[in-house]
Each structure stands twice: as C-alpha cells, then as structure tokens.
User: Fold these one by one.
Assistant:
Number 1:
Amino acid sequence: MYLLLGGTGYVGTAFQKYLKEQSIPFRNVSRAECDYTDKDQLDQLIKDLKPSFLINCAGYTGKPNVDACELHRAECLAGNGVLPGTIREVCESHQMPWGHVSSGCIYTGRREDGGGFTEEDTPNFTFRTNNCSFYSGCKALGEDVLEGAERCYIWRLRIPFNHQNSPRNYLSKLINYETLLEAENSISHLEEFVRCCTETHAKQVPYGIYNVTNTGHVTTQEVAGLIKTHLLPDKAFQFFSDEDEFMKLAAKTPRSNCVMDNSKLLSTGIEIREVHEALIQSLRDWMSDEG
Amino acid sequence: MYLLLGGTGYVGTAFQKYLKEQSIPFRNVSRAECDYTDKDQLDQLIKDLKPSFLINCAGYTGKPNVDACELHRAECLAGNGVLPGTIREVCESHQMPWGHVSSGCIYTGRREDGGGFTEEDTPNFTFRTNNCSFYSGCKALGEDVLEGAERCYIWRLRIPFNHQNSPRNYLSKLINYETLLEAENSISHLEEFVRCCTETHAKQVPYGIYNVTNTGHVTTQEVAGLIKTHLLPDKAFQFFSDEDEFMKLAAKTPRSNCVMDNSKLLSTGIEIREVHEALIQSLRDWMSDEG
C-alpha cells in the first residue's frame, strides 16, 4: 500500500487519479487527519499503516503564484525545506522507500555548453547563487536536506500542464494572462509526470534525482502558436518587451526559466513524450471546465 | 509577565537567572509542555498566559559545535529559519512585542571601510553569499523571515562568554581546544547580553535589529594572552598555521569570524563594557565547575 502526503493538491490529485486507475492501493492522508510535519505523528502513521512506499507531494506553493511566497517565507521554508528532511528521517528509520516531488525551478537558462541541465549539474537558481525567488531557494534547500538520502527518489517537475483548464495549468495561464513573457522552458505533462514517478518505484530503477520533464523544450511564443492553431484561432497574445518590463510590471520575484535534460529518466526505459506532441494532444483534448 | 521560549538552553538559562534577579515575573515554557513550533499551540499558550513580552531563545545549535548542523539540516532550518516566522505571525496577531535571539555569525570579516558591521550592512556570510555554514545560512534566513516584523527586537549575539566554565563558553573552548585558529572577533558577555536585550524592551527603545556585542573586538591571540595573564600562567597555546589548515584538520564547515559595530545599541543609552574589560573580569572571577 502507498501512502500519499499532500494528495489534495494539484499534483497530488493527479497521483490519486493515476493510482486508482492502476488499481494500486493507497491512502491519502491529510494534515487535518495527521500532522505529518511532526516527526512523531508521521512515525506513528507509518507504524499504523505499514505502507510499502511513500509519495510526498506536499509542499508550499504561493497562491495565485510564486510571488506570494515572498510574503509567507516561514511557511514556504517549512513546507519545502524542512518537511522533506522530516520525511527522510522517518522513512530511513523504517528503511522504507519514498519519493519526493521536487522542482526544476532551481535552475535558470541552459548549461554553458548549450545543453539542458542534468541531474549532475549544481542548481543555479538558488539562495547560493543569489538570483532566485524565495520559493526556488526553499525548493533547493529541500534538495540540500535530502543530500545522501537512502531509498529516496527526487522527482523534478517543471511547469505542469494537461488538457484540463485549471489555475495551475500552464496552458490555462498562457490563455488567461494579459501579457506573456517570452522564455524557453522544459515542462511536464501532469499525467505523464505522475506515471513516470510511480514507474521509477514500480520498475525499481536506481534511487536518486530524476528530471521528469517531457523531452525537449518550448518557447512561450511556440506554445502561444500551438494554442492558436489547435484551440483558439482568434486569440491575440501580447508579450512583455523583455524580462525587465515583466519584473517591473507584473512580478515581485524572478521566475525560473530553464531547459532540462531528461535523458537519465529515458535511460531507465521509462517513456515520456516529446513536449510538442504532449502539448498538441492536450490542446486537442482541451476541457474548459475544471476537473 | 514575560514568556520565555527555549529557556533551558545556554542563553535561555542566563535569561532565566537575570529575570529572577530583577524580579521580573516570567514563565519558561518547554516544548514538552507546549509545542510552540506549532502555530495553534503557541497561539493558545499566549491566550492562556497573556504575557506582555515574549523572548525567543529557542534555536538549533549543533552539538558539540556548528559542524553538526551540516548533518541535521532539517532541524537546523526548522529551529532557526521557520520558528522565528511562526512566532512572528502569532505575536503580530496578538499585537504583542517580542524579541528574538539572532546571531552575528551571518557576517565574516570587516566592512570594506575597515569598520565593524552595522545593522544596516547586508549579511555577507549567508546562503546568498555562498560561503557559509548551514547554521549561518539558516540564521540569516531567520532574519529574512523577520523582515518588516512589527513590535520585534532582533538581538544579535556573538560567541558568548562569561566566568563559568561550560562547553558553550568561548573561554572554556579556548582553554580546552588542542589547537586554536587566529581570528578577529566581536564577542558577547553572556550576562551583559541578556541584560541589554531585556533593557531594549524595558526602556522601550525602537524595535529593530541590535548588535549586542561588547564594544571593540579581540583576536584569538589576545584572548589566549589574557587567559595566561589572569588564569593559567603555564598554559601553552597552539595555533593552526592558517584557516586552510584549520578547515583541513579540524572543521567540516567554515566559521564566521567578524567585527561588529555596537554603536546603535550604545546610542539608546544601554551600556555594555569594552570587550577586554569584560574578558579580564570573567577570568578573575573564573569558576571551573559548571553552573
């Protein structure tokens, strides 16, 4: 049986749906039911439920966006920096495997050689590089806290999207924002992300960090073009002239835009689609009602 | 009535002693009694006790020294980065003044102009400057989390010492370490520190950050000389040849060594002795039995 923490969030809901479809027995435990941020309560929960695997999709993301994390720093640190360490300690004491939903937002740009960032590259959008949002800094500290963790998968998600309209869906954001920022990104199809994460455990690939993004990368302009072609032919997209204008007019804290390399994931035999293919299918299947 | 959090630690014990001497009524609450790291429990505690002022001397310091924080990252982040934010939120909701024991260990060296660091200087031994220990990084995040806090004193302690032998006392460390690192530091006499902190509230000086260090600075060589002159005439002190040797042989993570400027504190009329005077008196009154 799997134990899911944070299962009511955007990513957690997708995990629940996938595990149900796959008939994998699981329990989603809410913090109201058990405050799993408390080591002793999490330990007792694991003693009671005896799960074979734990999935942590709990974390603090600002609402409506990452700017809110600048104002809720303690919650952001607790949810993204401390909680992974608490779970690690308890899971290691039970010698139990587990996986943590991390983020590719701890990188910016591309590698110096022009390639996407691999799991070996030191994150470059962190407190230590002093260029990041408070959110990215906290996510990077979460990975610091997991350095050397045993029986632990670290799954890096990047800008989730799928075919269902939602305030958290990248496609919905592009459709609804008044003005867009041109940037180059690797991104993650939500249902493929949760399938790949689950498969790392099911297929017993080696523990460690995995960039779980669709193959390749896209620019905002490209995605806007796909939205016009496949969903909203009359939509006129407006762009900020550059990142300075974006920071001046629309944002309180810098965004991570980056290209990731998913070849470590692919090398395990786990499959994930090319990003344009995944985007086009999501737009063809688009459901404008949430859920 | 004052509410003391972390009152059984090295600094907290000194607060308890001082408040008793001054006949200031207070309650020291342990985490066993109330888990004040939980917002709701701290809120209820304040509703029950109705304190007029809260003193936070709870925090995570590694044992036997700061190297241990490299191995206990989540606890270090929780105790030094998240807890101040939790206390802030609850105190602000009660419009209650409070003080937080921070640290000068978020600086290294001196100001570019040769002076000591003032409260206006941006910390330069932090995750953002990427040169620090995990402990210093977490203490600096604690100050980030308190940015703009209302009715809040941030008291910066540096390397506490007094006349009582203790594993936490700077003088005991110099006496007991096999080899010393030459460095220049501002340091805090423990009893003067807690008196000054308490006086900031009692005298209603403006809220904000205060460097609560004895006036001036000392080198390790100087303090070793004072120990020989006033306490252990036959003691032979050995020094590492430089910081590289110290890092190679004795330490897992870099130490903060820095000169602080305490003129903001002095400008309020609160008095603190010149550092050599405070050191000599501590050595003359030396008690080799703890407590």
Number 2:
Amino acid sequence: MHVLKYLSAGVAMTLFSAQLLAAQTPITNSQKQTANQLIETALDSDLGYDIVESLTTEIGPRLGGSEAEKRARDWGVELGKELGFDKVSIEEFTMPFWDRGQLHISLTSPYQQDLYGSALGGSAPSKKGINADVVYFRDIHALAEVKAGALKGKIAFVDGDAMVKSQTGAGYSQANMRRRVGWQHAERGEASALVVRSVGSDSHRFPHTGMMSKNEDKWAKIPVIAISNPDADHLRRLHNLDKPLSISLHSESKWKSDVSSGNVILDLVGSEKPEEIVLIGGHLDSWDLGTGAVDDGAGVAITTAAAALIAKLPKRPKRTIRVVMFGAEEVGLLGAFAYAKQHEANLKNHVVATESDFGAQTIWQLVSNVNPEATVLMDEIAKILSPLGIVRGGSDVPGGGPDIIPMARMGVPTIRLNQNGRDYFDLHHTPDDTLDKIDPDELAQNIAAYAATIYLIADSDVKLK
Amino acid sequence: MHVLKYLSAGVAMTLFSAQLLAAQTPITNSQKQTANQLIETALDSDLGYDIVESLTTEIGPRLGGSEAEKRARDWGVELGKELGFDKVSIEEFTMPFWDRGQLHISLTSPYQQDLYGSALGGSAPSKKGINADVVYFRDIHALAEVKAGALKGKIAFVDGDAMVKSQTGAGYSQANMRRRVGWQHAERGEASALVVRSVGSDSHRFPHTGMMSKNEDKWAKIPVIAISNPDADHLRRLHNLDKPLSISLHSESKWKSDVSSGNVILDLVGSEKPEEIVLIGGHLDSWDLGTGAVDDGAGVAITTAAAALIAKLPKRPKRTIRVVMFGAEEVGLLGAFAYAKQHEANLKNHVVATESDFGAQTIWQLVSNVNPEATVLMDEIAKILSPLGIVRGGSDVPGGGPDIIPMARMGVPTIRLNQNGRDYFDLHHTPDDTLDKIDPDELAQNIAAYAATIYLIADSDVKLK
C-alpha cells in the first residue's frame, strides 16, 4: 500500500528504491517473523539451563581425554537424539593425556601456611617434593631477564597483577604470558619449580589452572603451580617486608600414555542446500577443578538449545545447521584441530562458523568477518537482535571462538555473538566454575540470539565468504 | 554567656531547665569536642588497616593453641608497647589442642569428583579412610529423627540451605545446628562419618569450618566434614535424580595433648579512677583456613587502634581503657572463660565490656544493656555517632560479643556497636577470609565509632550497671 503511494513520484525512482530495499533487507518478512518467534520461545524456555544442569550434574568435571569426557560424549549423543537432530555422531581422535594428581603447596618461611594452588596443564611431577627458598619476580618481564643458572636450587615466584575486569576480556593474553611461557624462563634459570600468580580478575582463594605453551614440542620439566590472587598478594606483602620466603610443594601431575577423545556432531540437515553447513558449538571438555558450567557447559547448552528450537520449526532451514561439541579444547584445541583436519576437503562448504565459549552472561554485540553482501545480512540480523540489548560491532572477530580458529585459518568465514565477559575471569578455570554461577535469564538471552541468528543465516542464500 | 540571657525569664524556671539539661546531656562540651576530634582523626588514619595487615601478613593463620597464636601474642605485646599503652601483659591458660591435619574427600559414585570440604573443629580421624554409600537428609530435623543403628556402615549427609544474607546475621544459630550437633544424631545412627552443608551465605566453593558442640564433655568419635554450598547443591541435585551417592574421605584431624594459649591485655590507665575498667577487644586467634582478617583481625585492629588514638590525647580519660586480645575464641571461647575466671573478683569494677567480632563492614547501630541513667548517656553518645551513619538501637545485646558472654553472665554491663553483617557469612571460617576483603574506609568508620564511644564512657562518672 505504501509503495502505491509513491508510484506517482516516478517509476524509475521507485524501481531504484525497491532495488535498494532488496539489497538492504535480505531477510523476508516471513523469516523475520520466524526469527522473532524463536526469540520469544527461547526467552520463555528452560531448555538451555536444563542442558547445562544435566551436563554438570550427571557428568561433572570432564578433563580432555578422561573417562568423564567419554561419558560426556555419550551424553551429547543421547541429548542430540532426544532433541530431534537428524544426524548424530562422534568423531574420535587420539591425544596425549595430562593427569593432575595431588598437590600440596605451602609457605614454610617465614612461617607455615597452606597456599591455594593448582598445577598448570603440562606441569611435571616434583618426584620427592621440593622445599626451597623463593626468588621473587615482580612480573613476567622481570623473570624473562633471568640469567642462565641463576635460580639453581630455588623456586621462582612470578607475581603480576589481578586482571582488570572488562566486558571484552581485554588483558587476558597479556596476563596469560606468565602462565604460558613463564616456565621457559624458570628452566633457563634452572629453578626447581615455578609458582605463578593466577590469571584471573577475582580476589578469592582459588587458583586458576590452564594449559602452558609448549616450547618447540617440549613441555616443562619442572612443576609449575598457579596460586590464588590473595595468596600472591600475601607473598608480595611478605617480600616487601624483606621476609625470606620459602615454599614446600609436592605435585604428582604428569603426562600419561595417549588416550581417545572426540567431537560430538549434531546436524539439522538443510531442506534445500544440505551440503552447506552453518557451524555453531561449544566445547564439551572442562577443566577438572570445577564442573565446567560457565566454561563451557554454557556454550554447549546455548548452541544445542538454539539449534533444538530451530528443529521444532515446521520446516528445516535451507542450509544444514551443525552443532559441534568439541573435545579437548582446554588442553590445546585438540578437538578443533581434529575437526578441521577431518573435514578439510569440505570446509569450503562451511558457510560460517562460530563458538560460544566466553561464559553465560548476556550477549551485547554481534561482530562478523564476512563479505560485503553478507555484512548487509548481518546488519539486518543485528536489527532483529536489537530488542535483546545487542548492538552491531565491526569485523573484530578473533577466529569466531577458540575452537573455530583452525577452520578460520583455513578460510571459513566467522561471526561472533560477543558475551559480556566482565565476571568471566573471576571463575575461569577455577574450582568455583559451577552451575550456581549461571543466571537462567542471561542464558536464555544467549539462546534467543543464537537461535535467531543461526536460523536467518541457515535460511539465507547469501554467501558469507 | 547563654545562661545569663535566660536569667531574666525567672530563676526557678532556669534552674529546672538546667537540671533537666544536665540529666539529658551527661557529656560536657569539652568531651563532645574531644569525641568529634577522635572521629575526625580516626577517619583520616590508616592505623587500623596497618594493624590488621601486619597481623595477617606477619603472623598469618593462628589457630587457638598453635605456635602461630603464640607468635601473635608476642606481636600483640610489641604492638601495645609501640602504641603507647601504659601496661601490657599476657595472661596464659592451658587448653586442649585440636589439630586439623590433611583431608581428602571426593564423590566416588555416580562418578569421581573432588569435594571441597574441611573437617569441623573437634572432628575425629578416619584412620584408614572411609568409602561408603551416602544417606541423604534434607536438613538437621530429618537427621534428628534417625533411629539408633540405622546408618551403620554409611556416611550421613545433612543438607540444609545456604544462609540468607542479613544485616544482623539472623539465621546463623539456626543454620549452625547442623554443624554443632549433627554429629550426635549421626553417631546414634552409627554412621561412619557425617558430611554437612557448610553454614554460610556464599555460593563459592569454600567450606566453612567451625567448632562442634560437645555432648556432656564428649567430642565426636567420627569424622565430621563440612562441604561448600555449591558441593552440597551438587549432591542434592544428584540425590533428586535418584543417583546412588558414595563418598570417599580420609581425615587426619584429632585431639592432641594440652597446650598453652593466652590473652593479651593492653591498658590505658585511668587518670582519676584507674580501678574502673572499660573493656573492649577482639580475638587474636583465627581459624586456620584463611588468615583471619575479617574474623577477627579486624576486631583486634579496630579496638586497638581506637584505644591507641585515645592514648594520643593530652590526658588519659578518668577510667582505665583495657583492650583484650582474646586467645582461643574459635575453639570454644577459652580465652574469654579464662579471663572471666582470672578477673572474677574484679569484675565488679568492669564498667562495661564490648567486643568487635562481626567483620569489618560499617557499624550501623549502637545497642546497650545498661541502667536507665547510663541509657541516657548512651543516647547522647549515639547522637555524636550519628554523622557516621549509626542509629540508636534498643537493649538487644546478646552478651556484647562472643568473648564478653562469660563476664556478662557474671554481671558486667554490655554495649555493642553493631556492624553490618551482610557479607560476613560469605567469608566466615573459610579460606577466603583474607586481607583483601577489608575495606579500609569501612574499617576506619568502625575505629571512629569505637574511639568516640569508649572515650566518652571512660571519661564519664556515670555507672552503667
């Protein structure tokens, strides 16, 4: 009706506008209606919370390569069938297994006090236990300057600072240097062990575990232990009082023989272009200290629930929607590399890929790394997500999520629904990552955003590459 | 000058008013001015924070009867001398010593998962370790109904709920029943061990330790372990799914031979009535899991700093101000009972007693349990405290603080400067009770209130009994 009104202004003008309109709105009214319906349904649904509750309660912690992670895969398969996915499978791969074992760590001078620590992933065992004087380093830069052999018979402690809380998680990579490569400097100094301030933004007595980086295929030969922020504060205060510090520690962690892990694949087969794949997912494994609720039970729940809501629509979207529950992410993106390798020949048919792996707080931004025509599509999707409090961001998409990195490097376009990460590094890799930290309403907002976004991309003809 | 102005209105009337005024304002202008000056100085001072930083850093955790608690007494003596107290002494007493030792506790069915627990004070050792099926009790009332012998070979788990956060700490006594007497019901049932939901208002993976109650001089013969609220939630969810639960635990905690503890006494000797004592204090010992910052390094710091500020005045107040750093509070008010016994003959000269032992958040209320004339004095003091955000409360003074209970029972009048306890039971008796949890400004507000209040009582002639 409105169009008729403008016809009098000249046919050429009207045709031009209509073309412009078509280019600007690559989403049909019917698709828009469906997306809005998905949002409404998601916001009213407990499905996502039920999934993460089930995973954390019935499976518990699930370290990459463990028996628990295998139970989680079986759980994922059963869940996929229950929720009406068309194809459900496990793709196994082999991986080296790092076992945490027991740890005791305490201050022994100037007095006896337990420290709250955890071995970092890849840490070596202490064998008989170590009791040694501590050499204090204010930060990783100070440790990086240590001379060869200068730490012989000592335990190095690398301090630093608690991470500043931020929406985007800025500061993680920088803080993470002490966790990732601190051991290489400590070993050059011939230290008996390295103790590091945890990489986290909280002030609770929880260590933050996490994987170290290899040095040209070599893992640390010394124990490397992260201690909580309050414990690190304590050591710093004692150091500043010129108190001589010594620490006793015994860690059993070590590498064991290779084990199986795997990715769980749940497909909603596309109705028109089944070979084109819109890939979403989270990682199924978790660190062993908590129950992996926020990292990344939430991501598994968000993406599985979003696809399950789409599965309830009268008709499958044109393209295939694939949920991947990646295995062994925490211990080195092993599932991600296995997926990229296994599907290498078919990655050209992966329309887009994205992962939810930044907690369970609300999504605030949609970013994309796609071609100009697809950018218009993403702009339109962002408008539909706007009532959820989501704004459109630029092309700042670091790989679409950790498990997407390998396939992004191989050319798969990525988008990301950025979550508010303000509290994420309070919990990240700690014993405190448990179900009670998830707000069901915030989780539902995530599912609403994923359901609408993924549906609209999967039902579109727009190429994203 | 002002009085002269009113003389014309009639001598009788003026005299009556003056009398009324004297009854209503038992505080002189000069005293009021001094109190205000103390408040101002306290709010600008770091002394309290420096004291609690020193105690938690240089001494660390200090379990009642431990070598660390002895170091804390020496620290207290040194501090008292430095701060200009007139008399500084230690009053020793003998006490039984409970040693925590190591604990391992994990879920073993339906799968392996570490639980975050701590032995409760008075808990018995497990000897060789226990691995047993769990019998779930929704709360202490359900456990209280258990029949004799009904738990043979089992581990009882008594659930309950996280404490509701409140300004006053309401709900602690009720929640604490499972910690205090749960073991008696479990032993009647012949359980191998008792696991209890921690008594705390947080949702962090920290157990809350604390002392159990004796049963007619008998301590528990079984291990009794508190687990964190998130762990208890986890067990409840598994129980609600009808999963069979079993737990493995090994605890080394046990009673050892008697040891020495002591109270540290710091006196500012009164200038006119040195025999009359205004007693304030906190407890020097702490639980061993944290560093006892909030419980009760804060109380020691608040009361010591308040008295130290009064010590800087040009003249000592009329009455003696005594700071007591009580020993072995956590393990049964042992220092408090020792003090009351040792000073029994002189308690009649204790004008008033009060303790700071409810954390480090701001004071919001002044309550008192004193005679009517002294009530007027307290009303006037409350007016002076009003700019600090403190209101006057009634006579709801449960003993003036834990360590005041024994002497209050023996007739010593009490007051209390009630702190906001909203977050207190998040940290209470956990590993997370560390210095970073104290806000220096809130601590300074406490010191301001104590300094003004204690000065005004000590410089008064009003009897409080």
